[in-house]
Amino acid sequence: MAFDPEQLRAEFPILNTRLGGKALHYLDNAASAQIPVAVIDAVMRHETAARANVSRGVHSLAERATEAYEAARSIIARYLNAALPDEVVFTGGTTGAINLVAQGSASQLKPGDEIVISELEHHSNIVPWHMLRERIGVALRALPVTDEGRVDLAALDRTVTKRTRMIALAHVSNVTGAVLDVAPVVAAARASGAQVLLDGAQAVPHGPVDVRALGVDFYAFSGHKMFAPNGIGVLWGKREALARLAPAFGGGGMIREVALDQISYADPPRRFEAGTPPIAQAVGLGEAARWVAALEREAVAAHELRLTGRMLDGLADIRGVRVVGPQGLQARRGVVSFTLDGVHPHDLCQFVDDRFAVALRGGHHCAQPLMRRFGLAGTSRASLAPYNTDADVDALLQGVAEARRVLV
Ligand code: PLP
To answer: Distance, CA 13 to ligand 1 centroid (Å)?
Structure first.
């Protein structure tokens, strides 16, 4: 069946919400995307037919729960083209996944070792490395960002050195929508013996990712941004990369043997899944991955790109609006940040919410170094999903134009 965003909307009951009598225009997908009925049903089915704890139970229901949990792992492995399901670690989200790598790498690092990030990273990909800086004395180095809001890869040569141990970058920026050109990063890492971690939070909602083709060592993402429940995310790691990581959390399920005077740990991925995992959420994530993979990828990409163009053109026509990010459509996703002269982003977001039921995000987007780079306190951000339509974009443009008339 040909891709039709209007038909897709029927799968998302929440999109029928009316706010103050107005139809909702949900453009905050980069923060959290909505959930289709297929995913809600999969969670419901699991909770009503297979709810039990995993891995340790011997009764039939526990076996059913374990099978469902491990089936979700296999679906995610396929979504990422991982070599093995055991390369997929379930976490609480992107933040949990990156912390797991940072904390788990601590014992391999020494003072003076270097971690390379960029100026446009989400705090989730800055703070865990800062914590290592404070704890161990590793140095944090950042690739600069171009005026277009992209990581400046021309600076790779002077930023990545023989002391670099990790290059950790966003696959897609949650502020500018810029897509990272991964190949030169991997080449620089290989030349210096460093590992590469990609923060894929804003990339995986747009379709399957091939971690093997990317050639990276770790890949992190969150379920709630890709049409799955909250509280679940993934760290994918190459088998040998995961094997080198120490566990960051201890508890049930992650051990081989415990005595009072010694301990040995389970192999990955269980080594990193201490305690009862978010089981129904993992089942939901598996279903969400299946749901995204079944969309007509090229048609969805073309649709989102067209809407992004409509948004960029429309914003360019409103006096006082400045887009922070690529002005063109090449190597960018439908995440559009902008400022309106004389209006604080929070005021703008509240205004378009009140008057037009348009849901945007306003603020620093957990990217304060990037805001500093552009001399801004924050931006307003509209972000697209496949179910968005021309009507959503037009409501946004009408709202921003009206805000200029009323608030400036
Ligand atoms: N990285 C990026 C690029 C993001 O956009 C986000 C969330 O906005 C995160 C990391 C953090 O994700 P989570 O809060 O789900 O852990």
So the answer is: 25
Report, at the CATH architecture level, how domain 5-29+296-407 is classified. Alpha-Beta Complex (3.90)
Residues of the chain with pLDDT under 70: 1
How do beta strands 114-118 and 139-143 pair?
Answer: parallel
Q: What does the chain come to in residues?
A: 408
320: region left, alpha or beta (phi > 0 left; psi from -120 to 50 alpha) = left
Give the pLDDT of residue 252: 94
Question: Which residues have C-beta atoms less than 6 Å from ligand 1?
Answer: 30-31, 93-95, 122, 124-125, 170, 174, 199, 201-202, 222
Atom from ligand 1 closest to the CA of residue 225: 15
Q: The pTM is what?
A: 0.98
- 366 is known as an active-site residue: yes
Check for a shared fold between 5-29+296-407 and 50-293: no
Closest C-alpha among 253, 249, 248 to residue 266: 253
* pLDDT number for residue 1: 59
